[in-house]
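Lab channel / #folding
Pinned by the channel admin:
"Please post every new chain as: sequence first, then the structure tokens as a reply. Keep commentary short and put observations after the output so the thread stays searchable."

First post following the new format, from NK:
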Amino acid sequence: MKSLIPIFFSVNDAYAPYLAVALTSMKENASKEYNYHIHILNDDICESNREMLSRLNGDGFELEFISLSEKLRKIDPEGKLNEHCFGAFSSLTIYFRLFIPSLFPQYDKGIYLDSDILVPGDISELYMQPMGDKLIGAVADYSIQHITPFMRYIDMYDGVDHRNYINSGVLLLNMKRLREVDIEKKFLYLMKKYGLRTVAPDQDYLNVLCWGQIHYLDPNWDAMPSEMRSSFDNPHIIHFNLSSKPWLNERVPYSDLFWHYARRSGFYRHIRRNWRAYTRNAEAMEKYSSDINGLISLAAELCDARVSFRSLAARSQNRVRLCC
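Reply from TO:
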């Protein structure tokens, strides 16, 4: 009997087509020695998108759709999580990864992936990476290393070294250990008690809560094309982070590879139609650019905030323990 590898995505309707591209690339390159259970954590994906995605079932791949909208409403009836979602770059689905360990106690280890990716490598090799007792495995986010406000924000507000600040789009999860340290409870406590503004909500919390207990993966497991680094020796996972997305800009590195898999995803016409509409809409393009500038401005503003993750951790009396 083949061993099972659990993989998690979080997605809403808007990103369902790009998830199909990600899954198509993953399925074509994954080892046939394993079975893969794909858990699609979602914010109520429509029936037509579910049916299209379900066509990827079979040959060792099993897709399961799990709506977490109601769970979030119960956890956060006052809507505080919504307050931290910024512009085009985040939605409530970004928080889903923080609840995976408690929601799936049957797994001791798993993989979380954003949907704006390609997987030209064998995903089973990521799952087999040794991580000891570390809480998560991830790649240091070099995509922000050339943006001074972001680097300063991470150092001054998050209170972690920006050189080792990880990207949360590709995570190897030690789910057993994450349950032992109760990552979900710590996140909810900090979020509800302090309601800190953040530039990258889920990512900032993961960095702060898991600091010192992170296994750093080879960058090829989260290859993020950017101005700083456009190519990689052997990318296993290509992550089209922030605005570096082929369906917004075909000059992005690895765009040809994206369209190669998009043609076989079942959503090619839909994605192509969205691309044409976006590139012909000056207002939409300007808004996306404005959102990036807004993130940079927010990072600069928060550097001088009176209360931050860094200030909470530094309190000498009634010290708040942030790290797990």
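NK: Residues 282-302 form the longest helix (21 residues).
TO: also worth noting, The two ends are 36 Å apart (CA to CA).
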